[in-house]
Sequence to fold (505 residues):
Amino acid sequence: MPHDGPGEHYHDLGERVAGHDDTVVWTTVGLDIGSSTSQAVFSRITLAREDAYYVVVDRSILHQSEIILTPYATPELIDRVLLAAFVEREFAAAHLSREQIDTGAVIMTGLALSTNNARAIADIVADESGKFVAVSAGDLLEARLAANGAGLRELSAQHPGIILHIDIGGGTTKLSTWRAGKLLQAAAIDVGARLITVDRDRRITRIEPPIARISERLNLALRVGETLSPQTAERIAESLALDVLRYGGLLAEPPGDGGLLRTEPLFSPADRPEIQAIVFSGGVSEYIYGREAREFGDLGVALGRAVRQLAERCPVRLLESERGIRATVLGASQHSAQLSGNTIFVSDHRTLPLRNLPVLLPDLRFTALELDLPSMGRALQSALGMHTALPGAPASLAIAIRWDGSPTFERLEAVAGSIALAIDSHLEPGLPCVVIVDGDIAGLLGAHLNQRFGGKRAVICLDGVQVHEFDHVDIGEFGQHSRALPVVVKSLLFGTAAGDTHVHH
Fold:
């Protein structure tokens, strides 16, 4: 319903969106560009209304691409032309056009992130449609994505004790521990199948820096152009396998040094937990579980064999994830979308629609009757400052607030003041202020924000929408015959198998 004063409040955002029933079907695509391989998966997800929210009730895979070796023009540049041609072929193989895709994600992982044209590569799909999210998955985020994609949330809920997940890719290995459906720790190390590559004659074509540490430890002299004997490859693979299990806490002796760590260690040697089970994913897992036997000019076969032999000697259960090499891309292709909300505030309809706003979740603590305004201000400034400092970061964003306590005039005014100050400090003039709050107060907070900006910046305030860090949000336009506003939250979602109906954030 219209509200007196600047801006408008609307109720029942979750009411039927024009042109849609209480069931919505999306066609999605995920593109995973890794240091070793690249692949795409096309999926269809069905959302149905449950109370105020739309939730995923079914998902199915429409098409899985071939898995290709990520094409490099030079060691520092991914071949954009060849990768774009691969994407085009897979759209054709899926019998889908870009216009038929509702949402999707381009995920860059591992050493692919360090290439000089990483951003341009991620934009192969994302730039061509505002429906797509481009995510550069850093080490810890990749560890979480790989584990969720491999079904660790469900596996750890089904099996007692701590489960160690190890995702071994082409350039890096991600480690995480899980218990009762919850992530405990995560880390990453420089271990992968393609840290050294050879041609058909076993001449070395590429040596990544982490191999230098292994070579020194094993007293090897490795040079590009020289032959890598099978025996030497086995020695390197065995050394890498030992590092993987040592960093993962499966072996009593700790790693020799921290030189392969990309993050903080999974735990200190004194706090090494007792692990009951282990599960692998990533490209090397295909060799560990015996699903692949071909060689691709790298350490994959030898590393998979060495890891399997060592793991079988450990007093833990070896569990299996069927997703293996496709864990991350399957998660990327199947998004959670919400069309929901209770009240909203929109000061200027001409601002809409908005696409792919990254969600920031500042650490705002509503723990006392008297708000800690200095702490709140620092948290907002820090979150926005970190985001705007990222190369290629989107200019617009959405701030999510976990509201606690009563929405008194004084509290609303104080929070609005802190948000307005942070927004004006970091966002260019004219960009909208978008706030998502988990309480039925969007209309009130939006009005306070609108007054703060004095018409110099559009204000959009939503509530009843569930968002998490790393989500992206689309805000559509008002329907011709409805005051409903479609809001789509794009989150990576995971499950144990294609077609299951449980959504986990």
User: Anything to note?
Assistant: Confidence is low (pLDDT under 50) at residues 1-21, 493-505.
